[in-house]
Amino acid sequence: MPDGTNRHRVAIVGAGGIAGHRHVPAIRAQGGRVEVVSVVDVDGDRAAAFAAEHGVAHHHTDVGAMLAADRPDLVIVCTPPVAHREGVRACLEAGAWVWCEKPPVLSLAEYDELAALERDGGPYVGYVFQHRFGSAAMTLRRQIADGTLGRPLVGVCHTLWYRDHAYFEVPWRGKWDTEGGGPTMGHGIHQMDLVLSLLGDWEEVRAMMGTLDRRVETEDVSLAAVRFASGALVSVVNSVLSPREESYIRFDFTDATVEVSHLYGYGNADWRWTPRAGVTGSGWLPTDDVDSSHTAQLTHYLDAMDRRERPPASGADGRRSMELITGLYQSAVTGRPVLRDELVPGNPFYDRLSGAPEIVPETAEAAR
């Protein structure tokens, strides 16, 4: 292993497709930095099959039992969103660092509850926002920071995907209580996070949403206009109704337009820098060629662990996406603009993204 790095014992919670198809390859790409010691799934047969397929020594059906028996340094949480809060909490309380799939949790209240369990030097909880870490986005981030392209003025952030009716037959999908929201929360969050990581804090959002075709409790499409602290204005569309699928982001700066068009991940070839007339744009293109991927983000996460520093896409940095989604839902439901500084305890959308109070069984029974 390179000097300054450690070998980290890793556990995976949730033995579904995202764990096997994305996280296992990302772990293997780290070489000797990572050893998978355990897998957890509420379905014991699935946990056992995952362990056998990927050469994992231990498998469990309970997170607490795994933490006590295997004592991992890092836990990767790949469960449905409704289980994120309790899984992350148990790991942090046991002293394990956590890398959790999106969406982080179901509300800002849950996000802040988990953040309060972190300690200086770790453990920390970071979230899977892999689109930040491709070399093209890293290059653009540096260019924005040093003013190479001028000021950001206008942006477009479109997540135009297609999910058929059968997709939503999975019981936890399309419900406020178990998924937290619709495509705004579960699909467009990646693109919105990338924009936020590039342009920084937002100040105001005005939004609409609708349930136009899918049999879900949540929206199946949303649209928003977002004003950033820099003054830039960005149009956001999140859809699962779009037969020709595309993930598209565009930034218009004073001296250039920068665009990326892809679907679920990009390489340098998916990006285009266009200088305005009279500007050469010399030396703007990325010199490295790293695709956006779980592998790229995990490398940065492990580097932070080795330094015992907060990883990227965690804390206040990771909270930005949840803030924007919360503000978008509040604006769409209430029909009015929402300011970022409104998203505080006491605001009903801080506790639940639909803005409606949670009805526990006892309350529902008493209301009959």
Automatic annotation (TrEMBL):
Any matching Pfam family: GFO_IDH_MocA
Alphabetical list of Gene3D superfamilies matching this protein: Dihydrodipicolinate Reductase, domain 2, NAD(P)-binding Rossmann-like Domain
Domain of life according to the entry: Bacteria
Stretches assigned to the GFO/IDH/MocA-like oxidoreductase domain: 139-257
Alphabetical list of InterPro entries matching this protein: Gfo/Idh/MocA-like_OxRdtase_N (IPR000683), Gfo/Idh/MocA_Oxidoreductase (IPR052515), GFO_IDH_MocA-like_dom (IPR055170), NAD(P)-bd_dom_sf (IPR036291)
The Gfo/Idh/MocA-like oxidoreductase N-terminal domain, residue ranges: 9-121
Xref: PANTHER family: D-GLUCOSIDE 3-DEHYDROGENASE, UDP-N-ACETYL-2-AMINO-2-DEOXY-D-GLUCURONATE OXIDASE
Protein name as catalogued: Gfo/Idh/MocA family oxidoreductase
Organism phylogeny: Bacteria, Bacillati, Actinomycetota, Actinomycetes, Pseudonocardiales
